[in-house]
Structures are given as C-alpha cells and as structure tokens.
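QA checklist item 7 of 12: single-chain prediction sanity check.
[x] sequence parsed
[x] length recorded as 216
[x] structure emitted
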Amino acid sequence: LACKAWSEHLFQVLKLGPRIRFCKAVQSRGAVAYHHSAVRSMGQDFEECVAYQFEFFQSGNYTLQWNRSFGQWSAANERQVGFWRVSGDLLCCESTQGPEVPEGCVRYAQPGMVAELPLESVLSGSTVVDHETPVWEYQVRGQPIPSTKLLSCEPADVRSESQTETQTNFSPDARFVDVDGALHEVSADIRDNYPEAQWERLMSCRIRFGLLGHTP
C-alpha cells in the first residue's frame, strides 16, 4: 500500500501523465500537430490577430509558422525549425538554423530561441486564448516577457545584438520620426507606401506592439 501511494506521489510530482500521453501520441502518429490562435482587443480600435501552427515529429524535430497582424496597419510572420524535448508538463522547443530563403519569402528565426509550451495545450490539438497572451508567445517571437509573466527559466534576449546592429547601420535613404521622445528610422515599406504625414502614427503602432524588424 505504501509503495502504491509513493508511486502515485511520484507520478503527480514528476507530472508524468502529460509526458506519457504526448510520447505515445507522437510515437503512434509519427507527428503531432498543434494550432493556436487569438484575436485580442488592444484598445483604440486596434485588434491583435495571431496564429501559430506547430508540428512535432517522432524524430525530435519540430516546425512552426506564425503570423501576427494589427488590421491593415502592420503584420509580422516567421518560420522556425528546431528540436523539442519534454520537461515535466512542458514541451520545450529550441530553434536551429533554418535554410536560406529567396527574397520576399517568409524568413526563418535565428537559432537558439527557446519556448516552453504546456503539454496539455499541445495534446488538445488546438487552443484559442483571446483574453491574455501566453508566455510562450513572447518566447517564440523572441520578445521580452512582461515582468508580470516571467518564468523561472527566462530565455535570453537573443535578438538584442542583431537589433542594435540594425538600428546603427542606416541606409542613405533613411528617414526618422520622433516617437515618445526617441528617434526611430521609418521602416522601408511605410516610407515607400504611405505619405509622410502618416509615418509617425504607423511607426508608433509598430513600436508599441513590438513589430519593428518585421514587414508585411
């Protein structure tokens, strides 16, 4: 009786239930697909629309494509490839270097990005979370996690170096706007497709929602 109670205790503490079910699913099917989406009100007539499509393979690899948009104002998308592993009741994904893609195609994320997805969500096959942003969405996009959502194992800001380099290497055609007291280079697609009178408003939107570095 004592051995049974101890076994049940370990089963709960080590969170073996989701791990076993996920491993069985990926072994029997060869791959497990997971789709996550949301439409969130951001105020001032802005809506954030996101969609993430994962596929986890028996080999230990995964693929991901995500997109995030704010109506007609701005959009971002990216692909990932990498490895997955199970840790407790979380599915940890770490990106690896993706293949080169032609100009104009959806790019791949840089290697070393880490995200932790709840196994129960992945096992459900599909989730919709409109009322909040799960921590793993920030991790997948390589964005800082708000202090109220920090995990004990926060990934490094792997994009900070590349972002700094981009911001200091300006093209001869660079134009700038003042947003909240700081100068920002106007994104090329905004500069080329919108009148100058709208640059500040559009750039403010991109900066507010963390979309710098992504173009439609």
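[x] summary fact logged: The longest helix spans residues 16-29.
[ ] second reviewer sign-off
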